[in-house]
Design a protein that fits this description.
Structural class: alpha/beta
CATH topology of the largest domain: Rossmann fold
Shape: globular
CATH superfamily of the largest domain: Vaccinia Virus protein VP39
Strand content: 5-15%
Radius of gyration: 22 Å
Number of helices: 14
Bound molecules: S-adenosylmethionine
Largest sheet: 6 strands, parallel
CATH class of the largest domain: Alpha Beta
Strand order of the largest sheet: 1-4-3-2-5-6
Length: about 350
C-alpha cells in the first residue's frame, strides 16, 4: 500500500483505516525498511503541504493519510487539527481520526487536571514511570458490560465460597497501579455504590483512563498520580485495595505491600495480582531466543525491550512457537467477537 499507489487507490478505505488503527494500538511495533522510511518521509511532506494549504483533501488524500497513519502518530503531524472540522469520508475515516488524533489531544489536555500526591523520588519508580509514560498499558478499547451488581455480589464473585459481612451501601476502593484504568472503569460501571481512587505513576496512563471514564460518564472515580510507596499521604482508608500486575515493578515488592496494608480498613480486602512463572513462560522463551541469538548485544537490541527487537528483526516471530508470537502480538478482543466481518482488531503488546 505504501509502494503501490494503484493498490492504495482500490483497497477498501475501511480496511486502510482499520490497519492504521491496528498499528496505532500496537504503537507501531513493526519492522520498517529504509525504503519504507524514505517514502513515509515523502508522504509526510505531501500531507504537510495539503494541510498547510488549508485544503481538507479528497478521498485519495485520505487514503494517503491512512497509509501514513500506519507508520507514524497522526497527532504529531503539523496542522492535522484543521482536518478535524471537515473530515473527508467522515463516516469511514471518523473513527480512525478520532482515536489517533482527537483522543490523544484530549488525553494531553486531561494531564493537567490530575491530582498529584507526594513526590516520585525512588529511582526504580522514576524509571518505571518513564516506561509507562511512553507506553501506557494496556491500550484497551472495550470491556464486558456486565449487569450492575451489588457490592456483596461483586465480592462473592471475587472470592467465591467466602462469606464476608460486606454492607451493600457505598464501598471505597483504591486501585493501586491502575494503569490505563480498565479495572477501575469496569468496576465503577458495574458495582452499585462503589467509589474508586485510582492511582498510578504514569500521567499518560491516568489520562487514558480518565478519558475512558469521561466517555462513559462515570463520576465515581478519582484519579491520582502517586507512587504506591508514598500513599501514606492519603488521608482516606478503604474497604478494598486492588493491585494487579504492579508490585513486581518495585525494587522491593514487599515495601509496596507494606505501604498498601495500612490503607485497608480492618476487615477490608486486599487483592494482589502477581505475574506467575507459568503464565509468563512465553516472555521467558522470547528472552531466551533473544539471548541465544545475541540480539541483545548492542544498544537498541536490549533483551529487556523486546518491542525494539521485534522491530529490528522482522524474522524474529516467524516460525517461532505460537506462544512466543503471542507474546509480541497479544490481542485485545473487543465485543463483538473478531469472527464477525468488519470488526476491527485492536491489539496491544504486553512486555
Ligand atoms: C502492567 S501495568 C498494570 C496496570 C493495571 N493494574 C492493569 O492490570 O491493567 C503496571 C502499572 O503499574 C504502575 N506502577 C508500577 N510501579 C508503581 C508504583 N510504585 N506506584 C504506582 N504505580 C506503579 C505502572 O505505572 C503501570 O501503569
Amino acid at each position: 500500500m505504501l509502494f503501490d499507489g494503484a493498490l492504495r487507490a482500490r483497497a477498501p478505505l475501511r480496511f486502510l483505516c482499520d490497519l492504521a488503527l491496528q498499528r496505532f494500538n500496537n504503537e507501531f511495533v513493526y519492522a520498517e525498511s529504509e525504503a519504507e522510511t524514505a517514502i513515509v518521509a515523502e508522504l509526510s511532506l505531501v500531507i504537510h503541504n495539503v494541510l498547510q494549504g488549508h485544503r481538507s483533501g479528497d478521498e485519495l488524500f485520505m487514503r494517503s493519510l491512512c497509509v501514513f497513519a500506519m507508520y507514524r502518530p497522526l497527532h504529531r503531524q503539523t496542522g492535522i487539527e484543521s482536518l478535524l472540522t471537515e473530515i473527508p469520508c467522515a463516516e469511514i475515516t471518523g473513527q480512525m481520526l478520532r482515536r489517533t488524533v482527537v483522543d490523544v489531544l484530549e488525553e494531553t489536555r486531561l494531564r493537567s487536571s490530575i491530582r498529584r500526591i507526594g513526590r516520585i523520588t525512588d529511582a526504580v519508580s522514576q524509571r518505571v514511570r518513564a516506561q509507562y509514560e511512553e507506553n501506557p498499558y494496556p491500550r484497551w478499547i472495550a470491556f464486558d458490560r456486565d449487569v450492575k451488581v451489588s457490592v456483596s455480589d461483586w465480592i462473592r464473585s471475587e472470592l467465591p465460597g467466602l462469606s464476608l459481612p460486606m454492607a451493600d451501601s457505598t464501598t471505597m476502593n483504591v486501585v493501586a497501579g491502575c494503569g490505563t484504568g480498565v479495572e477501575a472503569v469496569s468496576l465503577a460501571a458495574k458495582v452499585a455504590g462503589i467509589r474508586i481512587t485510582a492511582v498510578d505513576l504514569s500521567l499518560s496512563s491516568i489520562a487514558y483512563a480518565k478519558r475512558k471514564a469521561n466517555e462513559l460518564g462515570l463520576g465515581n472515580i478519582q484519579f491520582v498520580q502517586a507512587d504506591i510507596l508514598e500513599l501514606g499521604e492519603l488521608q482516606e482508608r478503604f474497604d478494598a485495595v486492588l493491585c494487579v500486575g504492579v508490585l513486581h515493578h518495585l525494587r522491593e515488592p514487599q515495601a509496596g505491600l507494606r505501604a498498601l496494608v495500612p490503607l485497608v480498613h480492618p476487615g477490608g480486602l486486599l487483592k494482589i495480582g502477581l505475574y506467575s512463572e507459568r503464565a509468563r513462560s512465553a516472555v521467558n522463551a522470547a528472552r531466551k531466543i533473544i539471548g541465544e541469538r545475541r540480539m541483545g548485544g548492542h544498544g537498541a537490541l536490549n533483551p529487556n525491550n523486546p518491542a525494539r527487537v521485534a522491530r529490528c528483526h522482522p524474522e524474529f516471530t516467524l516460525g517461532r512457537p505460537a506462544s512466543v508470537a503471542r507474546f509480541f502480538y497479544h490481542e485485545w478482543v473487543p465485543r463483538p467477537p473478531l469472527s464477525r466481518p468488519g470488526t476491527p482488531v485492536h491489539a496491544c503488546a504486553d512486555f
